[in-house]
Amino acid sequence: MSLMNEILHYNEEFVETKQYKEFLTTKFPDKRMVVLTCMDTRLVELLPKAMNLHNGDAKIIKNAGAIVSHPFGSIMRSIVVAVYELDADEVFVIGHHDCGMTGLNSDHVIANAKKRGVSDDVIATLGHSGINLSRWLTGFEHVREGIEKSVNIIRNHPLLPKNLPVHGLIIDPVTGRLDLVADGYQQPEDVHS
Fold first, then answer.
1. Inter-residue contact 139 to 146 (CB < 8 Å)
2. Is 70 one of the annotated binding-site residues?
3. Minimal CB count within 10 Å: which of 87, 102, 104, 111?
4. Per the domain annotation, does 130 fall within a domain?
5. pLDDT tens across 38-87, in order?
6. Domain tally for the chain?
7. Is 96 annotated as a binding residue?
């Protein structure tokens, strides 16, 4: 049985037996918060449990490394929508130790893409189109650096209120311990201030 068929088979039983009932909630976060975190598989259940979050408590946005890479990209759009349309009053940026974005090697990623069938012509065309793949496929040297950068972009975004608490934390992907990097209740212009 393929993975897709396995999922659809399970889903049919899930719906028929009404297992969804325990997850019913509204689209508005009960704890009025939005969380930007990493897509790491170890955090899927660990992060909500470590933060005492239940279904309906928070808007959770995930990407590689919990990185805001562009002030007008899809991550920031999601945060702006969460604040103005979905009643989020605080933002939590949560990275983790042992993150795959630490020291990400763009040449390695491009080589793997080529092994999976992406042609040299496509890579060259992207380069000629002004897309710097080496820069785009960059992570950070230390997880703290990534969190601080994302927190600063969010805190200083022109479309967000200046008094919006934006917190930065690092979670241990084994124990769930949270370490504070940036306290959003103390809003300096830059977390290095």
1. yes
2. no
3. 111
4. no
5. 999 999 999 999 999 999 999 999 999 999 999 999 999 999 999 999 99
6. 1
7. yes
